[in-house]
Design goal:
With about 230 residues, the protein is mainly beta. The chain folds into two domains: about 100 residues; about 100 residues, Beta Barrel (Lipocalin). Strands 1, 2, 3, 4, 5, 6, 7, 8, 9, 10 and 11 form an eleven-stranded antiparallel β-sheet that branches. The protein starts with 14 loop residues before the first strand and ends with a strand.
C-alpha cells in the first residue's frame, strides 16, 4: 500500500485588511487626552504623535488581526487595538464609534477613534413636525409636534398621541415600543400616524442641516423633519 503524506498547516490567527476608511483613501483617525495624542492609519503607515508632539512614531501598517469586538495592529514599535465600542473624548459632546488603545515603547494610552457623532440637543424644547416620510406633510404643522425628555418622547403627528422610551446608540436615535391613543380620524391623518410609527421603529440617524432644524433619517431613506 502506498502512503501519501498529508501536510497539515498550523492554525493561523484571523487576519483582516486595513480599515475600510483607508481602503477608500480616507485614513482612520484616533485621538486621546491627558496627555494629548493623535493616531492616523492608512494603507501604508501608522503615525502616532504623542505627549503634545514630543513623541513621534511612524511604522509600516501591518495587517490587522481580529480580536474580540475589533482588531489589532501589531508592529515592533507600536501596537494599536481598536474596539467597536462607543467612546467619549471627555472634552466635548462628541461621541466616537470606537475605543482605541495605543502602546508605544512600553507605554499605553487610551482614546477614541473612527466615525464622529455630534448630535444636536433634542431635550428641553418643543419641536414642530414639518415632514413625515417622503409623502406626507402635516396640513397644520403647528399642531403636529414632538417633545423629548431625557429618556422619553411624546408626539402627535396627525391624529393620535404617541409616547415611549428612547436612547442614543452609536449615533442613532433608537425608540422603544410606542404607546398610542386610539382615536378615529380621517384616513389621511391615520395614514400619517402609521407612517410616523413605522419610521420610528427603525434606528434613526440624527442630523441638524441648519440652525433650528433636526432631520431623523431611517435606513430605508424615509425622514421625519423637525423645526424648533
Amino acid at each position: 500500500m502506498r502512503f501519501v503524506p498529508i501536510m497539515i498547516a498550523a492554525a493561523a490567527p484571523l487576519l483582516l485588511s486595513v480599515p475600510a476608511e483607508a481602503q477608500r483613501g480616507t485614513p482612520y483617525r484616533a485621538l486621546g487626552t491627558e496627555p494629548g495624542w493623535t493616531l492616523t492609519i492608512d494603507s501604508r503607515q501608522m503615525r502616532y504623535d504623542g505627549d503634545y508632539g514630543e513623541t513621534k512614531v511612524t511604522v509600516r501598517t501591518p495587517r490587522a488581526q481580529a480580536i474580540r469586538g475589533g482588531r489589532r495592529y501589531a508592529a515592533r514599535a507600536m501596537t494599536v487595538e481598536i474596539t467597536n465600542r462607543e467612546c467619549s473624548d471627555g472634552m466635548s459632546d462628541r461621541r466616537y464609534a470606537d475605543t482605541v488603545r495605543v502602546t508605544v515603547r512600553g507605554r499605553t494610552v487610551n482614546g477614541c477613534g473612527g466615525e464622529v457623532w455630534e448630535l444636536p440637543e433634542l431635550t428641553g424644547q418643543r419641536w414642530r413636525i414639518q415632514q413625515i416620510g417622503n409623502v406626507f406633510r402635516p396640513q397644520r404643522p403647528s399642531q403636529a409636534a414632538m417633545q423629548f425628555s431625557p429618556d422619553r418622547l411624546t408626539a402627535t403627528p396627525g391624529c393620535n398621541s404617541h409616547n415611549g422610551g428612547y436612547r442614543i446608540a452609536r449615533g442613532r436615535l433608537v425608540v422603544g415600543p410606542l404607546i398610542a391613543t386610539r382615536k378615529a380620524c380621517p384616513a389621511p391623518l391615520m395614514r400619517r400616524d402609521a407612517e410616523f410609527a413605522a419610521i420610528l421603529r427603525q434606528p434613526l440617524k440624527v442630523t441638524a442641516p441648519r440652525e433650528g432644524t433636526v432631520v431623523l433619517t431611517a435606513p430605508d431613506g424615509r425622514q421625519i423633519v423637525l423645526r424648533r
